């Protein structure tokens, strides 16, 4: 028999787990780099840049445009990497809470 109350309780439980996991994502980090590691950008699970590391050899006024391009490339790589980690964490947080309903992917609820 279809137990609507049980499903609603599971939905509430899943929502609570998702909210809890979203708060924890600030501690999840990913790094992107460009220029063979000369520029590194670290982002957190809230999609915020938390650190930029620039090799001293790049600090030259004549290389300003190249430096900007490298920072953009490293930042984009870091964001791509954190998206994968966020989905993995959200999937772990909601695993086994809800029945496998096609079209309901709680891993993308961030």
UniProtKB/TrEMBL annotation:
Subcellular localization, as worded in the UniProt entry: Cytoplasm, Nucleoid
Assigned keywords, A-Z: Coiled coil, Cytoplasm, DNA-binding
Pfam family, one: YbaB_DNA_bd
Keyword Cell membrane among record annotations: no
Ranges in a coiled coil: 4-31
Cross-referenced InterPro entries: YbaB-like_sf (IPR036894), YbaB/EbfC (IPR004401)
Subunit field text: Homodimer.
Family: Belongs to the YbaB/EbfC family.
Function of the protein: Binds to DNA and alters its conformation. May be involved in regulation of gene expression, nucleoid organization and DNA protection.
Protein name, as recorded: Nucleoid-associated protein ACFFUR_10720
Organism from which the protein derives: Echinicola jeungdonensis
